[in-house]
């Protein structure tokens, strides 16, 4: 039991116990009881949960396992029997992202179970709006016997709440006001923007304070409350009190909400904590969260005197399974147990239906603990689901599909626990749990630039809890990125079936309805043309895919690779240059790290370097699987004079240009990735000249070193001939390009031919200067 206890009034502090608990410390305290209250006092018990997510079925009996709805009903009923002035509350996400038992019936069993437990009031969580505001009001809210509240989901352009902002619950003559609030990240980001059109988020603190003032201003027309409690679907980033008292979004809520709010019940982040945190005037108050899935429950106990003043408040967070409470009246418990049993029966029938088989695990990316989900990592499952959705819309012309990582809620395993499928059988239930949101598939025409913009948005805005969200991509699509670049400049190449995608190309793209309306801040997906909802639900697409592909092999090709190359010198890489290529995202984090293997880089048929892959995982990113490859560009290094002489030969330069070849990375298993970086082919460095025509041959009278009037590396001697001098910047004329006759053949140049020749030679001169300058700097020991 994690308990805190202090005494206070609504208008001032009363001398009493000190703060006794911090997160993660179990402290045994005596909790004020109804019997010990002074004459005229009223004791109110508030039992709360958060982020239940349809966990109506028990997952075990230990303290860390979901207890299930029937066990939770027993705890709630036991508190009611101990004190009729008991209120049952939730801080949101009662439904959505649920287990199959509830999901298969659109969470109807969960709503019925909470109705049977007589839930009094709940904040609106983000998952209540998974399918939009109409679904929330017409299905969820309509079926719920409790009141949903949120003060800061407002009508667009106003501060007017779109839903009920608070609910007053009367117990023992005391009016307890519950103000609701929802994470400000709801819009945009956590729900499909298309489902919440006309709504926006107002700041939690200002909206809550507005209603705290209204409920305590003495005007009965506003509705008055004797005690205020905030139910907020937002929470701290960990159980550590530092994350609830620093500069985070939640810390600002905990410190900024009006002191007339006596306690804050939080949610959303799935952490368990029981803190005491100072409000605006420095007065401490309980700030709690129970974790998630009904594993724990929260308990606030309020003592209110005859003048309706709060004189004492305590808080605790307790595991449901290890709480010894039992109920005498088990009618509500039996009703809940019956609801769960019926739901399980339906789920067993529907869920047991086989869809197909897999030859290996289809897993999400993991963090460095190799267990926790990493939405920033490329995953086998994400790429598979993207391909499923592309295939489902192929008849609509789809060429590429993208899948958001947050839409994947569990893995598909070859040997799933509790299933008789040693042969890799995937059931309807297993597939349904992967994508529980029933999104539809949407197609749209996007340019290469718009696709690039979407990929750039994987790097989320600064300050995001998840700084990188890795999109799953369908078969045939691949891209490289440079993690060293800045925002908006990281994507370096994109290909489809090995062919480059130009920024002006147009492709038919498939995304789910969540992404199509800018979910997870991927606003680029709202910019396409011919946007059309196919009407196909994502789960049905999975069912159809297994029907067409009864045996699915997990895709193991990397569809995004990080590439950072040492700066390219002026004029490009030349023989003798040292090149360093840093690679990342070479392996899936969910794979066996001992099997990472090695990577190599080459050009043409020649391998230039190889290195083992480091599989170390970098949390919240896709950088796992790194390697650094360094090599020297092969081929003879030309001398300074040779560079100058080569500049005079348009034929030699043209040959060198056509012989540039790209660097190619080869991953374990043979997958290759062509980089947007080239080096010269060795065969191009020494073109075979025709006898007597090699301009770099000293015996050739047109060699720049023996041109009339030109001294190689010297000044003009006043010799015969007129032309354009070429100077590499050292003050000496290195060559003169004749304008009265073609230097190497004697053919006359007139009119347009002269102009074309001058343009070509000007380009050659630029190359001479660049390469000559590099040679001089190298000789002087300076960096390029």
Automatic annotation (TrEMBL):
Domain of life, per lineage: Bacteria
Gene Ontology MF term list: 5'-nucleotidase activity; UDP-sugar diphosphatase activity
InterPro entries tied to this protein: 5'-Nucleotdase_C (IPR008334), 5'-Nucleotdase_C_sf (IPR036907), 5_nucleotidase/apyrase (IPR006179), Calcineurin-like_PHP (IPR004843), Metallo-depent_PP-like (IPR029052), TAT_signal (IPR006311)
The entry's keywords: Hydrolase, Membrane, Signal, Transmembrane, Transmembrane helix
Pfam families, per database record: 5_nucleotid_C, Metallophos
Gene3D superfamilies cross-referenced by the UniProt entry: 3.60.21.10, 5'-Nucleotidase, C-terminal domain
GO biological process, one term: nucleotide catabolic process
Region spans: Disordered: 683-729
EC class of the enzyme, as a word: hydrolase
Transmembrane segments: 749-770
Signal peptide range: 1-37
PANTHER family according to UniProt: 5'-NUCLEOTIDASE, 5'-NUCLEOTIDASE-RELATED
UniProt name for this protein: 5'-nucleotidase
Taxonomy of the source species: Bacteria, Bacillati, Actinomycetota, Actinomycetes, Micrococcales
């Amino acid at each position: 039991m994690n308990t805190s206890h202090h005494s206070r009034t609504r208008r001032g502090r009363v001398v009493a116990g000190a703060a006794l608990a911090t997160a993660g410390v179990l402290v045994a305290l005596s909790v004020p009881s109804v019997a010990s209250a002074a004459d005229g006092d009223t004791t109110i018990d508030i039992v709360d949960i958060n982020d239940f997510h349809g966990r109506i079925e028990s997952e075990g009996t230990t303290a860390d396992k979901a207890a299930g709805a029937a066990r939770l009903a027993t705890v709630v009923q036991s508190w009611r029997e101990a004190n009729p002035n008991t209120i049952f509350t939730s801080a949101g996400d009662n439904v959505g992202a649920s287990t199959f038992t509830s999901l298969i019936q659109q969470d109807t069993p969960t709503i019925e179970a909470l109705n049977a437990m007589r839930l009094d009031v709940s904040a609106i969580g983000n998952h209540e709006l998974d399918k939009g505001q109409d679904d929330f009001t017409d299905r969820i809210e309509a079926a719920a016997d409790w009141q949903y509240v949120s003060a800061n989901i407002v009508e667009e352009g106003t501060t007017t709440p779109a839903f009920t902002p608070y609910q007053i619950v009367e117990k023992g003559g005391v009016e307890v006001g519950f103000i609701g609030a929802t994470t400000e990240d709801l819009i945009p980001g956590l729900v499909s923007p298309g489902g919440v059109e006309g709504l926006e988020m107002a700041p939690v603190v200002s909206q809550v304070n507005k209603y705290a003032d209204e409920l305590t201003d003495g005007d009965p027309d506003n509705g008055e409350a004797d005690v205020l409690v905030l139910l907020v679907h937002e929470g701290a980033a960990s159980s550590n009190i530092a994350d609830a008292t620093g500069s985070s979004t939640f810390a600002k809520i905990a410190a900024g909400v009006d002191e007339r709010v006596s306690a804050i019940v939080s949610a959303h982040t799935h952490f368990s904590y029981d803190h005491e945190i100072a409000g605006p005037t420095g007065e401490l108050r309980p700030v709690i969260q129970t974790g998630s899935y009904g594993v724990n429950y929260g308990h606030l106990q309020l003592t209110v005197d005859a003048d309706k003043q709060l004189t004492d408040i305590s808080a605790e967070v307790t595991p449901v399974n290890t709480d010894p409470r039992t109920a005498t009246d088990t009618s509500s418990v039996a009703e809940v147990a019956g609801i769960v049993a019926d739901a399980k029966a339906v789920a067993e029938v529907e869920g047991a239906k086989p869809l197909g088989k897999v030859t290996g695990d289809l897993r999400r990316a993991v963090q460095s603990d190799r267990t926790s989900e990493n939405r920033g990592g490329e995953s086998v499952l994400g790429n598979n689901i993207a391909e499923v959705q592309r295939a489902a819309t192929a008849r609509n012309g789809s060429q590429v599909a993208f899948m958001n990582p947050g839409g994947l809620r569990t893995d598909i395993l070859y040997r799933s626990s509790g299933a008789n499928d040693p042969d890799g059988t995937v059931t309807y239930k297993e597939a349904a749990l992967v994508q529980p949101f029933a999104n539809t598939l949407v197609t749209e025409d996007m340019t290469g630039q718009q696709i690039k913009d979407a990929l750039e948005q994987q790097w989320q805005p600064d300050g995001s809890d998840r700084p990188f969200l890795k999109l799953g991509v369908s078969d045939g699509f691949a891209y490289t990125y440079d993690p060293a670049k800045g925002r908006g400049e990281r994507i370096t190449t994109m290909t489809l079936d090995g062919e480059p995608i130009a920024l002006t190309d147009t492709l038919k793209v498939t995304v789910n309805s969540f992404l199509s309306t800018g979910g997870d801040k991927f606003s680029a997906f709202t910019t396409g043309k011919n946007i059309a909802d196919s009407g196909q639900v994502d789960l049905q697409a999975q069912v159809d895919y297994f029907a067409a592909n009864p045996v699915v092999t997990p895709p193991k090709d990397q569809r995004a690779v990080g590439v950072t190359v040492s700066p390219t010198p002026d004029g490009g890489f030349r023989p003798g240059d040292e090149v360093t290529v840093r690679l990342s995202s070479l392996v899936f984090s969910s794979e066996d790290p001992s099997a990472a293997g090695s990577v190599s880089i080459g050009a043409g048929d020649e391998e230039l370097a190889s290195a083992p892959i480091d599989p170390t995982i970098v949390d919240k990113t896709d950088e796992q699987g790194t390697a650094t490859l360094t090599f020297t560009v092969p081929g003879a290094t030309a001398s300074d004079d040779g560079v100058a002489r080569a500049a005079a030969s348009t034929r030699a330069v043209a040959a060198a240009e056509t012989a540039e070849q790209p660097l190619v990375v080869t991953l374990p298993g043979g997958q290759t990735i062509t980089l947007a970086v080239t080096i010269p082919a060795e065969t191009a460095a020494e073109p075979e000249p025709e006898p007597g025509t090699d301009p770099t041959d000293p015996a050739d009278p047109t060699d720049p070193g023996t041109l009339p009037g030109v001294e190689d590396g010297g000044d003009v001697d006043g010799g015969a001939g007129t032309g354009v001098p070429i100077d590499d910047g050292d003050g000496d004329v290195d060559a003169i390009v004749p304008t009265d006759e073609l230097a190497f053949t004697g053919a006359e140049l007139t009119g347009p031919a002269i102009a074309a020749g001058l343009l070509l030679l000007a380009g050659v001169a630029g190359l001479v200067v660049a390469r000559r300058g590099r040679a001089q700097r190298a000789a002087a020991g300076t960096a390029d």
